[in-house]
């Protein structure tokens, strides 16, 4: 049996970075900057989910070798939501925690003070919501978004169902565990469950955690609408930047992420549904996520050559997205055509990339990378 996960050891392995407490109109925000700006390239901006901080949420991903090959080309700015960072002081009585809208409004001031001109955002859960709100408010600041477990809706039946299915509704830690993990994960993946339960209950001041949770619990729906090509692409409210939506196939957030995908421009959006993965893909499958992120930033023109060092010969990456064809009114089964077929030779393996496009209303396209034996 492997040794239990050590979040402190993971957090130390990447180095400390430079920490800042930045004053904004809605209070102080604790951030950590790693590296320096690389020319005109954007900074990678991360924002964590409830019950986590930037270290427990992202260091498994950023410590992965393939991800370090990417981040050497960028500076990285990690944001901790107010009161969620390591050794955070407890808020005084009467403190008014920022709303989700206000948390998003804090970020432009932080970027200005740190002389960050633009970002590629990576957000999980509540952090994904906040970064999406930033992109809607300030589209010129955000060049791309990786949104893990995003829920664009106000609290609704999906949140209620998650807490009911977990069977734990009276304790804040249990509610947050039900937010992160599926019922199967809670009963089967004991090592990671124990690690994160202890982290959520011991490493973050519980009053501070409750305030962040209540802010997310009181979120309003993100006002986004899928554009109709050739009709309202420039007028409808939606993300203008490329977006990669990520969710584990057994995550409690699957339905929410699919809903978000239905509201975004299909020509700029990709949905990555990770097989054999639950609620924390950046922790459980950091290698696959790092590979997907490499392709994402390469598509933005920032990394000319991608090398996959650690893709297992026993698994592939499946990337799915929904497309909308407004000109199609036929009720017949969709026709299938091969858009492209590419064979890519890497130092260690030969990989095939096959993309099949279904020409019909709101059909699914799937991009699969898999090794040839």
Distance between the termini: 30 Å
Poorly predicted runs are 1-14, 311-373
Strand portion: 15-25%
The top-level CATH class of the largest domain is: Alpha Beta
CATH architecture of the largest domain: 3-Layer(aba) Sandwich
Mean pLDDT: 80
Helix segment tally:
13
What's the total count of β strands?
12
User: C-alpha Rg, in Å?
Assistant: 20 Å
| CATH homologous superfamily designation of the largest domain | Alpha/Beta hydrolase fold, catalytic domain
Rough outline? globular
Strand order of the largest sheet: 1-2-4-3-5-6-7-8-9-12-11-10
Pfam family, one: Ndr
Organism: Lates calcarifer
Protein name: Protein NDRG3 isoform X2
Family: Belongs to the NDRG family.
Task: Describe what this molecule looks like in 3D.
It holds the Pfam family Ndr. InterPro entries: AB_hydrolase_fold, NDRG. Belongs to the NDRG family. This is Protein NDRG3 isoform X2. The chain is α/β, with parallel strands linked by helices and 373 residues long. The chain is 33% helix and 24% strand. It is built from 13 helices and twelve strands. The protein has a twelve-stranded mixed sheet with strand order 1-2-4-3-5-6-7-8-9-12-11-10, sandwiched between helices. A hairpin with a 2-residue loop joins strand 1 and strand 2. The radius of gyration is 20 Å and the shape is globular. The N terminus and C terminus are likely disordered.
Summarize the topology.
Blueprint: H1 7-12, E1 18-24, E2 27-34, E3 43-47, H2 54-62, H3 65-71, E4 76-80, H4 100-113, E5 119-124, H5 126-137, E6 142-148, H6 157-166, H7 172-180, H8 183-188, H9 190-202, H10 206-217, E7 243-248, H11 254-261, E8 269-274, H12 281-284, H13 286-299, E9 317-323, E10 335-345, E11 350-359, E12 363-372
Parallel strand pairs: 3-4, 3-5, 5-6, 6-7, 7-8
Antiparallel strand pairs: 1-2, 2-4, 8-9, 9-12, 10-11, 11-12
